[in-house]
């Protein structure tokens, strides 16, 4: 946990290509309180939709739906978390995270 906390407070940019489940949401943000971050999500799948929201997000109850080939960005305060789930098992989501600047 300490390494994860330090990384999100001092690292510049991180990226990942995640494989999503259609039955269990994937947490996209660090566990617990973090320093805040900018996060960009790109649905790189050709046909699957990605559904983003808080804990408990489903394909029927979500905050935002990302169409195939589309992307969205958020600036999150340190106490917020995001989760993603897909309507097609094993679809891909590109994630880019950047720590917020001091004073943001």
Characterization of this structure:
This protein is mainly beta and 104 residues long. It has a single domain (2-99), classed as Jelly Rolls, CATH 2.60.120. The protein has one helix at 2-10, and strands at residues 13-19, 26-27, 37-43, 50-53, 64-66, 71-76, 83-86, 92-99. The chain has a 4-stranded antiparallel β-sheet with strand order 1-8-3-6. The two termini are 23 Å apart.
- The CATH first-level class comes to Mainly Beta
- Read across the widest sheet, the strand sequence of neighbours is 1-8-3-6
Record field, number of beta strands: 8
Q: What is the CATH fold-level name?
A: Jelly Rolls
Cα-based radius of gyration, to the nearest Å = 13 Å
Name the beta content range: 35-45%
Taken together, the total number of domains comes to 1
Architecture per CATH nomenclature, i.e. the level-2 architecture: Sandwich
Largest sheet: 4 strands, antiparallel
Structural class: mainly beta
User: What percent of residues adopt helix (DSSP H or I)?
Assistant: under 10%
Note the overall shape: globular
Unreliable stretches (pLDDT < 50, length at least 5) are 1-9
Succession of helices and strands: HEEEEEEEE
**Average pLDDT figure:** 87
Q: N- to C-terminal separation?
A: 23 Å
> Can you count the helices?
1
């Amino acid at each position: 946990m300490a390494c994860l906390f330090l990384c999100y407070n001092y690292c510049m940019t991180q990226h990942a290509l995640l494989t999503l489940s259609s039955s269990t949401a994937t947490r996209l943000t660090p566990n617990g309180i973090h320093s805040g971050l900018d996060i960009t999500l790109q649905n790189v799948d050709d046909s699957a939709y990605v559904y983003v929201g808080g804990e408990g997000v489903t394909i029927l109850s979500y905050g935002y739906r990302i169409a195939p080939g589309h992307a969205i960005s958020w600036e999150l305060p340190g106490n917020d978390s995001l989760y993603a789930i897909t309507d097609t098992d094993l679809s891909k989501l590109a994630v880019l995270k950047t720590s917020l600047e001091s004073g943001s």
